C-alpha cells in the first residue's frame, strides 16, 4: 500500500479495523515523524504533555478570561511535525492533508451533537496558498464541519511572531453566520498548531459572546 504521508509503497501489518478502514496508514519512516501526546498526562487547558493538571500559561488564561478552552492535540510539535507543516502549509504539498487522517477521524467521530469549526484564514492567504490547511485535513479525514468565522484581513504568519506579540494581537475574526445558528450549541474549534492559544481564545470569545453554549478546541499538534 501507499503511505499517506510520503506516498511511497510500503508493507504494513493490518489489524481487522485497519483492513476495513478507508484510510491509509504511514510507513515506518513517516510514522517516526509524529510523536503522539499522551492525553492522560497533559494540561487540561492546552493539551501540553506535563505533570501539571493546569500549566502556568493556562492558569493565566483562566484568570484573564474566566474559562479554559480545553484543547486536545494529537502530536508534539517537534522537528518531524515542523517538517510536515513546512511541506504542507508553506510549500503547498496538498497531498500531505491525508498524513494523519485516520487519527483525526478517530478523535472527532466520537464527538456527538457538536459543531466542528476550522479556524479560517484570510482571503489573501487563501489566494496565495490555494487552500485552508485545516479544512483540507478535515476533508481528508471525512469530518463534516461548518465555517462559522471569517478572517477579513491578512497578517504576518503566527510563526513569525514572538510570544508577547502574539498575545497582544487584536481580535482577527468576525462572525460568518448569525448568532441564531450557534445559540446554545457546543462548538469545537480546529487548528493546526496550538502555540500561545491566542488565536483559539479569540475564536472562542467571539463564539461565546454570540451565544454558543461551550467552545473547546482540537489541534493537530501542541
Automatic annotation (TrEMBL):
<dbReference type="InterPro" id="IPR000836">
    <property type="entry name" value="PRTase_dom"/>
</dbReference>
<dbReference type="Pfam" id="PF00156">
    <property type="entry name" value="Pribosyltran"/>
</dbReference>
<dbReference type="InterPro" id="IPR051910">
    <property type="entry name" value="ComF/GntX_DNA_util-trans"/>
</dbReference>
<protein>
    <submittedName>
        <fullName>ComF family protein</fullName>
    </submittedName>
</protein>
<feature type="domain" description="Phosphoribosyltransferase">
    <location>
        <begin position="178"/>
        <end position="221"/>
    </location>
</feature>
